[in-house]
Design goal:
With 376 residues, this protein is an alpha+beta fold. The protein has 4 domains: 4-132, Beta-Lactamase (2-Layer Sandwich); 153-253, PAS domain (Beta-Lactamase, 2-Layer Sandwich), CATH 3.30.450; 261-315; 323-375, no CATH class. It is 46% helix and 25% strand. The protein has 12 helices and 15 strands. The chain has helices at residues 15-26, 54-60, 64-69, 72-75, 79-93, 130-152, 171-177, 181-184, 198-206, 255-315, 341-348, 359-375; strands at residues 4-5, 8-9, 30-38, 44-52, 95-100, 110-118, 121-128, 156-160, 166-169, 214-223, 226-238, 244-253, 323-324, 331-332, 338-339. The strands form 4 sheets. The chain has a 5-stranded antiparallel beta sheet with strand order 4-3-7-6-5.
């Protein structure tokens, strides 16, 4: 019988055949090779097992001869119903992988991979999936415990894929948005973000990388009772190649703190405006007071000048009794000198005396001259 290993038909007589045969037998995953018979339309019609290694028989708990002599579909976990359409697709297009969690009702868990190394040869590779299933169950149990913890926390907790689709939302997150989990999960979390805030959220997420895996920021939501503010901490999760696979996000409702900050800023602004207005008023009052002070000084100076002038006038004003000669009309001053009236007025008053002759004296003088002229 000719032994075939993963697409290479080998002769039993060559040294290379022996090396490939040794590799084939010691390979840790189970391998079964089957010939593909095709009808006249070249469609796959029959699958005949031709070779199987020890790992394959050990994983399934069957003897190799039993596997080779049995119907091909009985060899595959799941039987003809599960595999006939898959085999046809593999034979036509190439390769398919499928995990199976049972084998003839037992607890054996294997993962099956089908591919065509050659058009007339089908390879079936199986590997033990018990550890993977155990790990999956452990992760599921851990996630269940974590979910139980997250349900009781007051923080908003969610996970979402790079396209924004939510994969998890805890109770606080659902209550914040007034929706049940089924309404939120799978839908894009950006649907709950306002159009004005969406660029901010996208910008913060674009900053995440291996060196900077987390970011904290705040943004606003439109709620029933007005604007609501949430402080988010987003953590990026990476695969082995450094690509972001998911985001873990924790949110804290900071609406009251933001409102207090806004109110404080508003009051501070009002007080600054009031202080500025009062300062301007004080400046105007000081300016007016300064002008009034200057005006008062000017008035005081003018008053003093007037007082001095009045004093001078009073000093040069004749008051009381005057002694006048009844014959010559001379005036007796305070020192006992008899002075003619013009000189007395100039020395004791501010008046300036200008000598003239009155009409009475003029007529008197004219009569006197006429009398003298007649007497001659």
């Amino acid at each position: 019988m000719v032994r075939v290993c993963l697409g290479c038909c080998m002769s039993e007589d060559s040294n290379a055949d022996n090396r490939y045969e040794l590799f084939y037998e010691r390979f840790p995953m189970g391998i079964l090779l089957a010939e593909v018979g095709r009808d006249r339309y070249r469609h796959p019609e029959t699958f005949t097992p031709v070779s199987v290694n020890m790992a394959y028989a050990r994983l399934l708990g069957l003897a190799r001869v039993t596997i080779l002599e049995s119907d091909f579909f009985d060899i595959l976990p799941g039987g003809r119903t599960d595999w006939s359409s898959v085999l046809d697709e593999v034979a036509e297009k190439g390769r398919s992988t499928r995990g199976i969690s049972y084998w003839d009702g037992s607890d054996i868990h294997v993962q099956v991979t089908l591919f065509l190394p050659r058009r007339d040869l089908l390879a079936v590779v199986i590997e033990d999936a018990a550890m993977r299933l155990s790990t999956t169950k452990s992760v599921s149990a851990h996630e269940s415990q974590l979910d139980a913890v997250m349900r009781t926390t007051a923080e908003l907790v969610c996970r979402f894929r790079p396209d924004g689709a939510l994969t998890y939302a805890n109770r606080a997150y659902c209550e914040f948005f007034k929706k049940v989990r089924e309404e939120l999960v799978v839908h894009c979390f950006l649907d709950e973000v306002t159009d004005e805030e969406e660029p901010t959220v996208r910008s913060r997420l674009s900053m995440l990388n291996r060196d900077n895996p987390s970011v904290t920021y705040q943004h606003r939501f439109n709620g029933e009772g007005g604007d609501r503010w949430v402080e988010w901490t987003d953590i990026a999760l990476f695969d082995d190649e450094g690509e972001i696979t998911e985001y873990q996000s924790f949110g804290r409702d900071v609406t009251n703190a933001c409102r207090d900050a806004f109110e404080t800023a508003r009051v501070a602004g009002f007080m600054e405006d009031l202080l500025r207005h009062r300062t301007q008023q004080c400046s105007v009052a000081e300016s007016q007071a300064s002008e009034k002070h200057m005006t008062s000084e000017v008035l005081s100076s003018e008053v003093e000048t007037l007082r001095a002038e009045i004093k001078k006038l009073r000093e040069r004003t004749i008051v009381g009794e005057l002694k006048v000669c009844s014959s010559c009309n001379r005036v007796n001053d305070d020192e006992g000198h008899w002075m003619v009236v013009p000189l007395y007025l100039e020395s004791h008053t501010a008046a300036r005396v200008d000598s003239e002759i009155c009409p009475y004296c003029l007529r008197k003088a004219e009569r006197e001259l006429e009398r003298k002229g007649r007497s001659r």
